[in-house]
Amino acid sequence: MKTVSTIADLKQAIKEIKTEGKTIAFVPTMGNLHSGHLSLVHKGNEVADVVVASIFVNPTQFGENEDLSNYPRTLEEDKKKLISEGCNLLFTPEKSDMYPKPDLAVTQVKHMSTLHCGASRPNHFNGVTTIVMKLFNLVQPDFGIFGLKDFQQFTILKTMVKDMFMPVEMIGVDTGRAEDGLAHSSRNNYLTAEEREIAPTLYQVICETKEKIISGKHSFANLIRDAKKQLADAGMTPDYFAICRQIDLNPATENDMDLVVLAAAYLGKARLIDNTHFSR
Ligand code: PAF
Fold this sequence. Notes:
Layout: E1 2-4, H1 7-19, E2 24-29, H2 35-47, E3 50-55, H3 75-84, E4 89-91, H4 95-98, H5 117-120, H6 124-139, E5 143-147, H7 151-163, E6 169-173, H8 193-198, H9 201-214, H10 220-233, E7 237-245, E8 258-267, E9 270-279
Parallel strand pairs: 1-4, 2-3, 2-5, 3-4, 5-6
Antiparallel strand pairs: 7-8, 8-9
Helix pairs in contact: 6-7, 9-10
This protein binds pantoate.
Pantoate binds next to strand 2 and helix 6.
């Protein structure tokens, strides 16, 4: 695996790949890689000739009260994991390269970015869309590979790509899970042993809600109220619990068929998110 840190070196490496007529799958990350990230690299290898990954802890997607400086940085371990999964090129830019001063341009997907996670993390998704737009423009991938654990992020990025006519095929990869259902996430590292026992409740409640919808329960307001109570009874503090349309993440009505149940809850120091999407 070749590692480049400057934009000039990245452009040269991309030029060589394109000259050889090879297709590129791109896996943007913030590092501290776990098996979920590696499944994205695996998918990239299935669909394209070359897999490019990036590791960049993007400051613009962190809120003022979110600890950017303590975000885990594990570059050497990450590189080993990427090599073992067959990543071909790694881009590790500096903040001053990705956000040269004056830093005036942003990319925004309106409305959708303010819902759900966006309500408790204002500007978070504007930071995500801005950095992914910049990275896509530099890497020029044929495929963008993202985890579906961040379903809202994936939907927002898909909308950006579609609305901006970007020549990138977006691929969402199913969430990797522990045997008890807990989604793989860097945030699980914040859980104590006791909290780790409680954490799978989030996905259990999401799945139970899905089953109730499929079996014909249509009072979404009641389902949401019951789900939040179950989470609180288990010792979590629900942030949001939503039954939405997949297409635009607005609240679903009885007539909507393609649905996603999205939820976030605080557990100790961790803010866990998860979802399930389905058609009925
Ligand atoms: O999902 C992430 O890790 C980040 O939001 C992303 C897409 C790499 C942008 O910084």
